[in-house]
Amino acid sequence: MTQYVSVDPARPDPEVIACAARIIREGGLVAFPTETVYGLGANAFDPAAVAGVFRAKGRPSDNPLIVHIAGTDDLEIAARAVPEKARKLGASFWPGPLTMVLVASPGVPRVTSGGLATVAVRVPAHPVATALIRASGTPVAAPSANRSGRPSPTNARHVLEDLDGRIDMILDGGPCTVGVESSVIDLTGDPPVLLRPGGLSRSSIEAVIGDIRTLEQAPEAANRSPGTRYRHYAPKARVILAGPGEVAREVARHLSDGRRVGVMAVHPVPGGRAGLSVRMMSADPAGYARELFAALREMDDLNCEVIVAETVDERGLGSAVMDRLRRASQGDSAGPSQGS
Ligand code: TXA
Ligand code: MG
Questions:
Q1: Most buried residue, 88, 113, 161, 187, by most Cβ within 10 Å?
Q2: What is the CATH number of the domain that holds 98?
Q3: Would you say the CB of residue 119 lies under 6 angstroms from ligand 1?
Q4: 77 falls within a domain
Q5: How far apart are CA 262 and CA 336, in angstroms?
Q6: What is the pLDDT confidence band of residue 333, given thresholds at 50, 70 and 90?
Q7: Is residue 323 in contact with ligand 1, taking CB distance under 6 Å?
Q8: Quick one: which atom of ligand 1 is closest to the CA of 180?
Q9: Do 185 and 316 fall within a single domain?
Q10: Is residue 311 in contact with ligand 1, taking CB distance under 6 Å?
Q11: For 22-59, how does the pLDDT look when each residue is reduced to its tens digit (9 = 90+)?
């Protein structure tokens, strides 16, 4: 049985938090809101509990979890060496949507770190997450609270859809404000490598620690980033990316093939056509990021066979949005234009 409890996102009831923390301490699994997406938490130092997270999600065991701490003071519990650049990033952006990969302290269980010598650490910026970690008295290992491969959950209903009956508790603290996962940066080498674009933009990071590299610029780092190997964010429908000038043509093409089409559109698309569902998305990348995963799930609920997703500029959070859309589409973009 999964207990489902609503909490005030700004001031969670201490009794509810105490109950959730007891579950964590006793080796159970609790889904909780963060500012990015919902996480599925377990005691990071309890190998059996962490193994339960992998089981509940159906996650490959070599894909390590992020260890969530309540504040920078707890960093040394998880990480052995904390370079200067990591200290600067922590001072500037924690609590917040940034995860740092550092050399792991010897106490971090292998199951948590996926057998790597490194550990990913984050201080989330959500009162419910902070309260839960503090009350648990231990760092909380938490991947996104979705079944492996599905879009990440940005509200508690998404968690229920994926994990009802497989975990002990869901804390419903309303919708997530960022909507895409944290940016993951590997600081075990210099220059640091951005392993996953996310809720904190590359330019914000570079403003504090200077140039960093992306995975395209440092492909060898992909070996250190197991998450990049797996299929992600995949709704049941086929996802096709289309630039602003290509959306109408792609929609028409798939409708005329008799498919149920969903469109995630920044610019207006004529609706009222049989088989077509239109979902307007924010033009601003931060808004698109907040709506993205819920929109992918909605399209599945509408039984769309094809989702045409309008692309956005890769500025600010736009790069995280495009990363998630590309993974969801597995490389499907608008076909060649016909005629001209
Ligand atoms: O915003 C977030 O980061 C959310 C919330 C719950 O904090 N968590 C999240 O966790 O997205 P997850 O497990 O879905 O993604 C973690 C990513 C994966 O791509 C994983 O491979 C990578 O971080 N990662 C974890 N530990 C790592 C390590 N030691 N070295 C390299 N990559 C690591
Ligand atoms: Mg995930």
A1: 187
A2: 3.90.870.10
A3: yes
A4: yes
A5: 20
A6: confident
A7: no
A8: 1
A9: no
A10: no
A11: 999 999 999 999 999 999 999 999 999 999 999 999 99
